[in-house]
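Case study.
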Amino acid sequence: MGENGAGKTTLAKQLNGLLKPTLGRVTVDGDDTTKKSVAQLSRKVGIVFQNPDHLLFSETVREEVGFALKNFGFEPGVVVKQVERTLEALDLAHYADTSPFLLSGGERKRVALAAVLAWEPDYLILDEPTIGQDYQQKERLRNFILQLNSQGKAVVMVTHDVEFVAECNPKVVLMSKGEIVAQGQADEVLSDDGLIEKASLVKPQMAKLFSQLSEFGFPRDVVDVHRAKMLLGEKLSEVRVRVAQSS
Amino acid sequence: MSLRVLNGFKFSSLKTPVHRLDPRAKFLLVIGIIVPSLLFTNIYLLVGLLIVQVPLLMVGRVTKRWLQSLRAGVFLSALIFVVNFFTGPLVNAVALTLRFLLLMTTFSFFFMTTSPDDLGLAIDKVGFIRWLSRRWLGYPNALSFTFTTAVRLVPTMAVDAQTVVDAQRSRGLELDKGNLLKRVRNYIPILIPLLLIAIRRSLELAEALEARGFPGKERRTSLFELRFKPVDYLLLGISLGGIVLSFWVFFHYHVPTI
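After joint prediction, the assembly is written out as follows.
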């Protein structure tokens, strides 16, 4: 996370070799990115670009999703199977023979995601995946990311959407003016006024609430609803007991 | 990457004496260089016209980008050279290649040092274009606006093109792989998104313009007015002189042409 022009996308592009380091070294699983082609690295590191219009070109969603698989030299049988699986997983199966250009913005974004997920990269990089998505789709995306995560895949997300991040409470890397200014668990980073301002973000609502509640003895580093509910619930039952005792 | 060519035609917002020249005078200079280079194939003349521009590029501080665009144009000039080498004498091949480089340099010089806004203002001043625009499109500023928009969109399109290339390369597309036919086909996944983005953008632009009351009134005023400075008159004189001289020589002497 970080302000516009902080270098988030530049960093992401380093990871599959679209950009090569001018200074220092970037390694993916121990391989120096300067020694591998973009195609070789992309097999491992899949980047989903922000705007689906930049990559959709096929006549049908099915072809679109299969494009990368053909490029990577998968067997025809495997291509068909993988495409079906990915479309199923992203709830796009009924659009398989539709032109991607006839779909809505949110659906096109999902097709773009499917086009990368199809080859099951070990590392998935999502550039601003929540822009232009309604609440339900965001919720679905979150579940999907968590599911991938539990399958042992690393998901890196470039985003401004603090609320979305807060609910997952992942590891956050804050960037500003081309440098990493902080990294750590989301509840630590996103509740820190100084860091938030530096990266020109806004605090998640829970963090705002809890920084004001700190005078009642609540911790400040709360960003997600679940932990908030737990803490407030504890306090509430504590107070209830006290009221019952005093009356 | 072939897209680097476009860098050599992108406006660089610097404040050098070359940037401050009146765009009309500068455009006439471009014509003054193009006319003789198209009329004659004398190698000394072509080389001379090329060298004349180097100090201008240096003053405008765009030499580096010009060289970049030249390097990107090497493939095309080699093609021109080879084709002409097999169809005619060596001198012709050299002259035509030089002519290509010269034209590229001249346009690159003009577009790198002239802001699209100035260009629009300049075109708007030409009475003939205003008249033509009113006849065709019913509004005197429409043609100049169309041109300015087209020029303006070049850098935006270049950024889009780079993103599309990046996105497709991330999907395992290798542009410079395979035989010639395959290589041409490799560009389909680049060109289709680019075309669609351009069409979509133009529709959005049209809506935005209508929302802001385009075309507006007949007599539009502008914040900055173009005015000729002494140096512009000098440039105008040299260019006009060059053009007239070129035509005079061309029609009075039998100059061999290709």
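Observations recorded in class. The longest helix of chain B spans residues 142-170. The interface with chain A takes residues 160, 163-164, 166-174, 188-189, 192-193, 196-197, 200 of chain B (CB under 8 Å). We will return to this complex in the next lecture.
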